[in-house]
Amino acid sequence: MAMKRALITGITGQDGSYLAELLLEKGYEVHGLVRRASTFNRGRIEHMFTDPHATKKPLFLHYGDLSDTNSLLRILTISKPDEIYNLGAQSHVGVSFEIPENTGDVTGIGVARMLETLRTSGLPAKFYQASSSELYGKVMETPQKETTPFYPRSPYACAKAYAYYLTKNYRESYDMFAVNGILFNHESPRRGESFVTRKITITIARMLAGTQDCLYLGNLEARRDWGYAKEFVEGMWRMLQQEKPDDYVLATGTAHSVREFLELCLTHAGFKWTKSGKGDDEVYKDDKGKAIVKIDPRYKRPAEVDLLVGDASKAKRELGWEPKTTLEELAKIMLVEDCKKVGITL
């Protein structure tokens, strides 16, 4: 049997790196789209090149961009993939309020470029689109499932809504194998440091190392359905192994607040704390009376999504997928890894 080929956009990101590892383990030839940057941006995948068995791993990187159709066509022509995982995007919700046009171009129109390039190329590749629980926004029902109406509350979510419907439209209009994975929040030690869970773990690690004094956060009451990214990429792969294309929610089914995640991390790090004040004046102090967590209104969004919790029963039933890692276990995994980076052993 010929080796399967996969193309991953966003391969240097959290999900892309875990997915690349998974596909290589399954015997795929993996191609990744990488955006040119002035600083090194391949840290999450560098180990796939530098380990002793790297020469045996068929991993190839190609410079390109979802805003550049010619580069997409070139990479498709070179890689000739059996499966395409479109994970590339401007993926930060808060930042999307600051750069809505760029977010729309890359996160939304970029999907149109990819789908149309694939269609006109004539390649029979299966296509996975990374959709997001942010589509539900101001939720119309709880928990959210595949049939729940969308109510996006950010430029990022609006761009993802366009990408979702376009993927579905190409599936129905051109009989393409194109699916949407509506993934709820999924975290890991490879999560970007600007995302709240990783911001919490890396800052607490630095506080233990004595290189940072205080953690500044925004809305502590926002509730999210947090899972482990390494498990979620398995669900992505399973979607493209089905006989017929369809859309699936991947989630844990349990919601936790930012505050809960914060306090799990503080406890595991050995902090003893007290809370005082309310709203923007709330402060966490350690047992010596030193402020260790404060609220900074600048981190609050113009339109907040208060509660997201998913129903992944369809994925469990049809894909045989379900999450295994609890939030407490996930917080520990992330904190331990970030502490290692600063020379601290927990």
Please, could you describe this protein's structure?
With about 350 residues, the protein is α/β, with parallel strands linked by helices. It has eleven helices and 15 strands. The chain has helices at about 15-25, 45-50, 70-80, 95, 100-120, 155-175, 195-210, 230-240, 260-270, 315-320, 325-340; strands at about 5-10, 30-35, 60-65, 85, 125-130, 180-185, 185, 215, 225, 225-230, 250, 255, 275, 285, 290-295. α1 (about 15-25) crosses α8, α3 (about 70-80) crosses α5 (about 100-120) and α9 (about 260-270) crosses α11 (about 325-340). The longest helix is centred in the first third of the chain and has 22 residues, at about 100-120. It is globular and about 65 Å long.
Number of strands: 15
| Quaternary structure classification | single chain
H/E topology pattern: EHEHEHEHHEHEEHEEEHEEHEEEHH
The class by helix and strand makeup works out as alpha/beta
What is the share of helical residues? 25-40%
* Biggest sheet descriptor: 7 strands, parallel
Shape: globular
Low-confidence stretches: none
Q: Report how far the terminal alpha carbons are from each other.
A: 46 Å
Please tell me how large the radius of gyration is: 20 Å
Strand order of the largest sheet: 3-2-1-4-5-6-11
Count, helices:
11
- Strand content bin: 15-25%
